[in-house]
Amino acid sequence: MEAFPPPYVEHQLPLIVLSGLGERIDDSQIEALLPRQESGTKISTSSAECEGDRAAQLLDILLKHDGREQAWNATALPGPTTQLKYCMKVIGRTYILPPRKAAPLPQSPSVEAFANTQTNQHHRSTELHSPLSPLSPGSPIYPDGVFTPLWFEKHQQQVPALFLAFFKIAAGEDTSMNEQIQIDINAIRTALSRSGFRTRFAAVLMSDTSILQSPELEERLSAIRRATTLDPKSGLFFMPPMSSQAEMSTFVHSMFATLQPLIVEHYRDLTKHARRKKARGGPASSVASSIEGSPRSLSTPGWNVRYEVKQGVFAEFRQEMEVAERHYTAAVEDLFGSEGIFEATASWSPRWDEARLLCDSVALRVVRCQLWLGLTTGAVISWVNYQARMKDLVDRRGKGSQTYGWDAWESRWSEIMAQLIQRAALLDLQPSNKHDVDATTEIATMRLFAQPEKSLATLERLPPFHLLHHPGYWYRMAFRSENTRRGKALTIPEEDRSPPGQSPASAVAKRTKQYDTYLVREAHEEFAHDHINRLSDLAIAANQHFYARDQFRSGERLTYDLAVEMVSARKYDQALELLSPLWNTCTWRHDDWAQLFRPLLALLHVCALRTGNAATVAETAWELLAIAPADHPVHRSEIAQYISEKCADTNVAVRLENSQRLAPVTVSFTFTDKETYVGEAVECQVTLTSLTSSETSTLLVSRVELAISNGRKLVLRNCDGDDKDDQPKAFVDLSAAQEDGDGNLVATADLRLQSGLIRVYSLFMTFKEAGIVRLRQASLFVEGEIFSLEHALTDEDLVRWRAVYGLHEGQLMQTPLHHLDTTSVTVLPKPPKMQIVLHGLKKEYYTNEEIHLEAELINEEIEAVKAHATIAIPHKQEHFATVRWTKDSADLPSEFTIDSLLASQCQKASFAVQTSSKPSSFTVNIEVDYALEPEPDTYLTKSLSLEISTIVPFTANYTFGPLLHIEPWPSYFMTSPDRGIGDAEGIPQQWRLGCTISSAGLDALVIRGMSIVADNVGGDAACEFVEKDYQDTQSLPPAASTRRDFHFVTRKLSLDDRRPTTADLNLQIAWSREADGNQFIAHMAVPHLSLPTSEPRVLCTVLEQTPNAADLVLQYHLENPSMHFLTFALTMEASDDYAFSGPKHRALSLAPLSHLRVEYELVLHDSVYTSSGEEGSWIWPKLQVVDSYYQKHLRVQAAGPRVVVDEKRGIGVLVEEI
């Protein structure tokens, strides 16, 4: 936009003149650039300016509302519905407004004038217009011009929308100061009224004290208000002293909120005035025809353009960008119309270029408005359409689009688009922060181009170019057009390159008709102009945006294109400076884009030769050998000779690394085996392949060095001329290579490489230490008289080759290798021949078992050895088991020494493993460190790991129930004389714990005994076991089971204690694998027991001795251990299996702490005996016991032999055979 006058491209902001706060230098300089107003209205006041820190702070706050440096978008510069931004102009006490009407032309009275006194011709000829109107003879666009930049300057820099004056008022001053303020305010208002402009006025009175502190200020303010007739709300503001900038900011914000409607109304009035003039169709025809000496006047379409542009500018002042865009578009259409300026004006006329300048500026404003409104795709479409229309116009009416002037216009138009996008600061096109974790691929794509607006997003065939891309693309378009302009400038004929003063008139006339010089230089100046600086600026601007969005390839290509132009302009130093970073960092080398990288390399090589940069010449020549075409000079001689010729006076030493540079030779290294042992030879192959062109002479490699991670090197040296073969061999056997004094393997071989030839060098290496040996670096050396080059390869991927070569019938064949990492080999220690054999292993092992095993050490070495054997469990598993060596049932340390174990001899050692009480898995490690007697310092290690898992040997199921305790209950009224102070006093209750033990292992186990132990008895109770243990021996096969019952009695320590009794019991099983084997104890926890002690219950037993008449006597024992009187209702139900003797219905009352027995004699029917089995018959008597008070059914429980409880049928009694 620099080619246009600044007023044409600046964004319009409402102009506010600040008077009385001092004068800023920047504004003074702007004023100096404006034309001097000789006949304008002068505004001058006599009041002193407001000075001091307070005035300076207020001015700074006011200038923060200046929006000239803000981005061109609705966020930075909001519309009239919110807070506007302004163009602030700071002046002193004097200001001159431009004249609104032009000065009248000097005239002398004539006879014809007096003769025509009856007509109004004299009136029309003397009618005055704006000094910038085409109707004013003194106007720069008189008589048929459309517009001048001075009109924009007039409204942006001279005619304010608001004149804001600041005066200082103090409480202690006399009334003369008030009068002076009144005089100055009235003088300003009079001058503004006399000027003819509708500028609004407001005054700010700054006081050092507030009205509360100085009440007399109220009277002075009222006097000023009455004398000036200013509106107290929008014309006169009082500013008391303020303690902070925040208060000042609030005051200024409130003041502008009040004045903003007046400012907007000012530009609305100007818009209405322009609209009325357009509605009248421009000036009257009589006025236009009366212009003296005018060959022609401005046409009606021209006047329409003026009014549309004015309305657009005034809408832009109001920040109504949608309205402005509509008027600007109408102005462009009028300019391109069939009767517009372009069609009615000759292309050689200066008015043509003025119209083009105006049209370009208005089109620029159209695009700016669309970007402002977020119509990104619409802005691109407007840009493209305008370019096409202008090209068609230039081809039809101008001098064609084949001139350098048109390319300059296209470059300028593309650059304008880039600058507009930058000033718009669109959020969708801002480069994403590289450190932002939310910068996803989708967001990064949005940073390259903006999404189309909703009205166009539904179009299926929207061209990609119609999406608004970031400024880098537009700068690149400008670069290409500028490059085309330079190419056409260089083709200007010789006769057009001389200045007009040195050329014949006919040539000058021809040149005028042939070249389009709109905003460009004449042909003779264009040819001599240096376009490289302009191209460089555009490329730098474009690359800033490309690199900010990680579009490195686009930036690299643009840099290369710029370097090409520099080379064509013979600026080799600048081209070398530009190409060197690109050569070092470009992605073309790594992406194998030879079509791009090859010309870059050749161009850099030329620049290095021209500038004498020997190092760059050597490096580029080395890379060109790999990709340059066959006809390149670098292929015509050996590389060392070529560089020596080109850099004859300079010693060149170059070192390259990895893929930093392309190499014409590939180096591959392979270990044929994945593993080897100390002292054994392993084959390795070095493969060299030439990538040069078929026309290249033989490439001679001086030597190849391969550095191994253990500090050794493998060196291949080029042999002398006498040792070279006539025809290089593909496979070279170097197994006879010897180590030098430093331990490096050095071999001499023919290192001549022909194009496309693969040469394989086979060697054997041995290692003295165990570990992983890896290729650390492979280096190629090419050396000459004044030249040496080393290309080091430290990247394993560049030297790794997953195949091994061999000769088959004279042909080179390759065999794939199965291991991936072929550049490394694992050197294992010398394999031990000591064997460890374990004896006595079992299928399963159990908890709390002590395992006894025997380890046999067998010496299969050819020499006697001295050994140290250790046994241990890993530290993390030590809580699972313990291990120790044993001998004759005695424990030994964890390590024992064998002083001498002859070859083929063996020695046994026993060890014991004590397992824990919980199931677990652990490892027992046996490690034997031994040394051969001839080599006492070289130790070998043989190890064995034994995985042991332990399980619980038994599983148990438990049944629990009450038993009848026959001892009498304690009484409150009687105390036993035998009871001690600490004895239990509670009611004794007997219980039965049934344990069913099953074998859980795969081996038959022997149960040596069982016992029950009380780990904890809670609730202040005592526990006494009636049957505590069983000591009988029983063999338990796998999956078999056995049952044991344990009886115990619980008693509360206190008779008054009603809390439940809790018991934690532990079942201990003594077992062994064999009847006479070692005995182990298995601990099995019984589930937690909670025993009620104060609840009533009913127990059922069978009387063993029955009367003759009865077959069976049932005894029901009702117990009331509570402290309440309880009454129970008993009901015996009849049955088909028996007849009973006793009450069918009965009520019993039990005193506290008492129990009662109820008996029923049963006579069994014959059917019972008929259906009996081997054990007998079962009957199911049903006695219902109900608590009469709580109506609660008490469940009858089995409390003796021959009585069981079933969940569904209740109590069952076994009837034995009689």
UniProtKB/TrEMBL annotation:
Residues 654-1215 form the Gryzun putative trafficking through Golgi domain. InterPro entries: Gryzun, TPC11. Residues 275-299 are annotated as: Disordered. Residues 286-299 have a biased composition (Polar residues). It comes from the Eukaryota. Signal peptide: none annotated. Pfam families: Foie-gras_1, Gryzun. Residues 351-626 form the Trafficking protein particle complex subunit domain. PANTHER family: FOIE GRAS (PTHR14374), TRAFFICKING PROTEIN PARTICLE COMPLEX SUBUNIT 11 (PTHR14374:SF0). This is Trafficking protein particle complex subunit 11 domain-containing protein.
